[in-house]
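Many introductory courses stop at the sequence. We go one step further.
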Amino acid sequence: MPICSQLFLVQGPLQERIRKLLASYHFGDDVDRQCLVDAGWQVICPTDLFVYELDDHLLIGVDGIGYDFFETHWRQLYEALGLMWHLND
């Protein structure tokens, strides 16, 4: 499980959009992250969020703690998915 032990369940149409962004990485000397990949976790490009598929659902995990998750991960995910909720005022 990613380091901060927070998992987010993805449901609905966003699952397919996220699946299109998944990639398997080889982290080389980063043993902790490589263990996640070896255990079946994938990475959402370009967000560095980890995803695990369980019972046809996606679980998103953040591998890190002590920094701004929004700026580092969520904003990139929002943009990669082409979401525009900020325009729906």
